[in-house]
Structures are given as C-alpha cells and as structure tokens.
Design a protein that fits this description.
Chain A is an all-alpha fold. Helix content of chain A is 72%, strand content 0%. The first copy, chain A, contains 9 helices and no strands. Chain A is elongated and about 60 Å long. Chain A binds a DNA duplex (21 and 21 nucleotides) through α2 and α3.
DNA sequence: GATGAATGAGGATTCATTCAT
DNA sequence: AATGAATGAATCCTCATTCAT
C-alpha cells in the first residue's frame, strides 16, 4: 500500500512491492491473483475495518448531532492517521471502479445507511429536517470530506484535519444561509 | 480525450489516440511533447473555457442565491454535456497533480474566488451568514458536486444531473438541521 | 559536417543539419540522395581538396626529407585548422567503409603514391633505405598521424599539433634504435 | 560482440543480440544497464585480459628489442585471433569515448607504461636512443598497428598479420632513413 | 526550386507473470 | 511454501523520407 500510495498504481512495479514486503517477486503471486488484486484485496480488507469503526462511532453518539459529529471526526481521524490509505482512496479508488466496483458499492451503501440512521434519529428528535434525501445528504457529506482530505493531502498535511470537525458539523446543520429554515426555492 | 476518458491515462496507448484522431502516431508528437502533455494541454485549454462559463453564470445572477444556483446549474450542465471531460476530471485530475499542479491550483483558486464573491454579496444582502470560511464552503460545494457527478457517471448517466440543482442549493443554504438559525455547536 | 562532427553520424538528425544549413528538411533531399550521402559527398569533395594540398606540399620539397616534412606538416595543419573534419575522419570514416569504400581506397592509394614518391626520391638521393615496403611505410606514417590527431582531439586541442612535425620526421627517419643502420634482426 | 562487430553499434538491434545470445530480449537487461553498457562491459572485461597478455609478453623478453618484438607480435596475434574484437576496437572505441573514456584512458596509459618500460630498458642496454618522448613513441607504435590492423580487416583478412612483426620492429628501430644515427633535423 | 507537415516503420526498454528449483 | 531468473508482449517515441503546396 505504501508503494501504491506514493507512486500510484500504474507506476508501481510488483517487484517494488515485493521488496518493500521483504519477499520474492514470485511470492506475491501465491497470495494475490495479479497486480490489481493486491489493491482490491486491500480495499476489501481495509474498508471493512474502517467501516466497523465508523459504525461504532455513530452508535456511540446519543443524539443525531453527536452521531454526525462522531462520524465526521472518526472519518477525518482515520484518514489523518493513515495518509497512505487516504491517498489510495483519493487517487486509485475512482480509477479501478471496474474491478473494485462491488467494494465501492458496498462501501457507498454502508455509508449511506449510516447517514440514513442519523437522519432518521434526528427526525425523530426533531433536530433534523423531514424533507431530506438521504442519498443526497450522504453524497454531500462524503464529497465534502473527500475534498477536504484531498486538499489536506495536497498541502502536505499541514493543518490539523480533525480540527475541522466542528466547523463541518455546523456547516452541514445550519447551511450557509442566514434565513429562516423552511420551504426553499 | 475520448480515449483517455474511456480507458484511463495509463491504459490508453498513444497509437489508439492517433487512430481515433485519424492521424499517424508520429503526428501526435508534432503537437504534444509526450503522452502526458496531451492531457495537460487539454486541461489547460478546457479549464479556461469552462471557467469562463462559470464566471459568466455567476455574474448573470443578481442575488447571492441566484448566483449560487447559476453556478451549480452551470457546473452540472457542463459535466453532463461532456461526460468524457467529466470522467477525466474525476479520474485523472488528481493523479497527474504533479504536472497539472499549476492548472489545478489556478482552477481551485478561481472557484474559490467565485464562491467568495457569492458569499460576500450574500453577506451584504443579509442572505448569507457572516461567519463563513469561504475556503471551507468552496470545498463543500465542489466536493459535493464532484461526488454527485461521480455517482452519476458510475450509474451510467441514468438520472438527470441538472435537475439536482435546486435541491442542492436548498441543502447548502438551509443545511440539514431543523433548527433556529444562529450560532450552533 | 559541423553537426556530424559534434554528435556523430547516427545521433545527428537530418532536421538538425537542415536547420544548421538554414534550409528546410525537404531541401536536403534535392541535393543528397539520403542521410549517408551527405557524408559521402562531403568526403568525396573534401578529400580531393585536401589531397591536392598534400600533393602540392610534397612537390614543393626538393629533397626527400623536406618532402616528408612538408607532407607531415601539411597533414597536421589541415586537421588542426579543421577539427570538425578531423573528428569526422577519425570517427566516421572507418564505420562507413561500406559506402565510402571507393573514396577510402582512392584516398589510401593517393597517400601511398605520395609516400612512394618520397621514398623513391630519397633512395635516388641515398637518404632513404633501399629495402622498404612503401605500403608499410605509408601505414606507419598515416597511422601515427591519425593516432596523434586522435589524442589531440581527445585532449581538447590543448597542445600545438603542428609543432610535432619535426619530432615526427626525426622519429620516422632515425627510428628509435641507437644502433648502426643496416641489416636488422 | 559478434553482432556489434558486424553491423556496428547503431545498426545493431538489442533483439538481434538477444537472439544471437539465445536469450529473450528482456534477459539482456538483467545483466546490462542498457545497450551501450553491453559494449562498455565488454571493453572493460576484454581490455583487462588483453593487457595482461601484453604485459606478460613484454616481461617475457630479456632485451628491449625482444620485448618490443614480443609486444608487437602479441598485439597482432590477439587481434588476428579475434577479428570481431578488432573490428570493435577500430570502429566503436573512438566513438564511445564519452562512456568508455575511463577505459580508454586506462588502456592508453597501460600501453604507454609498457612502451616506457621497453624504452628505459633499451636505454640502459644502449640499444635505444636516449632522446625519446615515450608518449610519442607509444602513439607511433599503437597508431601504426591500428592502421595495419585496419587495412587487414578491410582486405578481408587476406595476408598474414603476424608475419609483419619483424618488419615492423625493424622499421621502428632503424627508421626509414639511410643515415648515420645521431642528432637529426 | 523550396517548403515543412505528415508519415509510420523501427527499436530500446519495462515489467507483470511464470515456473523450474 | 518460497524463490528469482527468465520471459516477451507491449508501448512510447524518434526521425529519415515523402509529397502536396
């Protein structure tokens, strides 16, 4: 992963990966079908781990807002603590959609379920609006976080990623408008 | 671009591009320094065009909300009408950051300037909150749109991308919270 | 020639030569059959010139020793004054023997005739030994001069090439032996 | 080497070399950095071998004349027995001076040292003149031999190269002059 | 006669993958 | 199970040469 993350999938040689792993080139093929499979297996494995964490974080919150905050904090923390993975998700995930398609769909669905869970809870509490499209909200959250992580990676990891959590929660909840909530245009 | 968009940069052979363009392989190299330069020149050229359109769209709006709506509609329209470009932006832009770095920065800055312009106007009108970080708002908007376009591309362009405009404007302005506007979190 | 001399035949592009000559690429082919022909025509032309000079130099000498000295001085002068030609002769002549074969044979023969002329004269004068193989002597002279020019070129043209003339004449005439001339081993 | 010798460096394709060697194209690159490295490694390896032989030959002689004769005979024998190497030295050595520079210098120096050794010995014996420039003598010997080998190669290896040894030794020792030895010119 | 854009064959090099050990 | 030498298909790029203008 280190190799893929730093050089990109296509510029990485299998022999580099083998060297980094301390095994012979041929050994790779005892555990992976081919080069692409290395990436796919990683995504399958890592995604599961990460999402368990996301779920735990959400479940650990009592109110919708706290859940959202937990999810976002966890999301940012996870990527901050593993920049190689961050880079892989940003750069390689989209390209290898053909092969990793199933993984992506599953992951996307999991995220959406989490968001739906939060929204539902918030609607029950009365803290979240009724007229929301969970899928759209999910895409807003995930897209925003992705973009923020991307910027952070490009900046060389300068600022504190996790510190943005509260600003983001606030932005998502309140929006940018100064107006009375209610029926919009 | 068609070739790059459908196969990805690394899986595309220069001779494929030449064939698609109806010229000989060598002819490519009369106009492009190397394979990567084809992509870079395209980004340079296309980005300029697209951003002129974005600017016009924003300037055509009278109020901040209308401007935001115009920007988003234009953004979605542009990518819907040129799915090849959309795919390229989604899949290749991030990876070739080294070479296209300047372009990306310039583009990112332009977008941010547009958003800042809208925010400022809205703040003067009293329709946009005062306490906003323009860079964060920009990342939210661009990230959300990117994710939405990504989903749309992956779905095979099924639903109407541009029809999401109003929902997005509403979501950005109002947020997902059901609360009294004002200092939150 | 400048281009060939500095980069070598195979690393020189026809378009470079055209640029240096201030004409279009295609124009080259109005005057030369192909790339190799540029070299061949040059050798044909230049060799003739140079050998006329060699002949003149030899004829201008009255005794055999003076003739030899004149030949060598002229030879070294010619190459010192045109290092590009020198480099071409050293580096490209041997390789293109197939095509330039005729030229090389002619040139070699001319040189041999000059040397034979000198030897004959010296033998008549009694200053040159009788039992000499003119072809061998020619190869000694031309080989030595070539090697000396080669060394000079490699050294960056540091020392004065022509100043070696007298030492060489002396070396050729006297040999390195300290002995009584006559029947050797 | 066979391939390089027969076609020249630039006209030789790596795949030809691989075929001749009975391996796949890629295998070449497990042992050589690139095409040029094939030549350089050969020179490095072969030159060492050959010069060991030269040294042995010189050391095997007791008097200066015998040493000179041994050196020349060995030199001619070596090249006669390996015409491919001979062709390579004649045609490619000079051109690849950039890369093989170090080798050439080292070789040139070794040859010069050998010649200096012979001269010194002869001067002690009284068989070699005192006023000699070893570097010039070296260039005469090596240049003459090169030229003789060149002629031999061009003639298709017709006559017996090694048979020239005695004539050459005699020529070098006595010179072409019919005069009293001593200070000339 | 001169041009130079276009051509496309050719060749060096890389690297994922295999398989005998 | 592990190795790593060998493979050879794949591909970018160069450049001599042509020919319509």
């Amino acid at each position: 992963m280190r190799v893929f993350a730093r050089q990109g999938f296509f510029k990485s040689a299998v022999s580099q990966i083998a060297r980094e792993a301390g095994v012979a080139d041929g050994t790779i093929y005892l555990y992976f079908k081919n080069k692409e499979d290395i990436l796919v297996q990683f995504f399958t494995y890592k995604t599961k781990l990460v999402f368990e964490g996301f779920k735990d974080a959400v479940r650990a919150g009592s109110g919708a807002e706290e859940q959202l905050r937990n999810l976002i904090r966890r999301h940012l923390t996870e990527f901050r603590d593993d920049p190689d993975m961050a880079r892989l998700y940003q750069a390689e995930m989209r390209r290898h959609s053909r092969l990793a398609e199933q993984e992506i769909r599953a992951m996307s669905q999991m995220y959406q379920d989490l968001v739906a869970e939060i929204i539902e809870k918030g609607q029950q509490e009365g803290t979240i609006r009724q007229d929301l499209n969970p899928s759209l909200v999910k895409r807003m959250i995930i897209g925003t976080l992705d973009e923020i992580i991307s910027t952070w990676l490009h900046s060389g990891g300068g600022h504190d990623l996790v510190a943005l959590t509260d600003h983001l929660v606030e932005l998502f909840l309140q929006g940018i408008g100064q107006g009375q909530p209610g029926p919009a245009a």
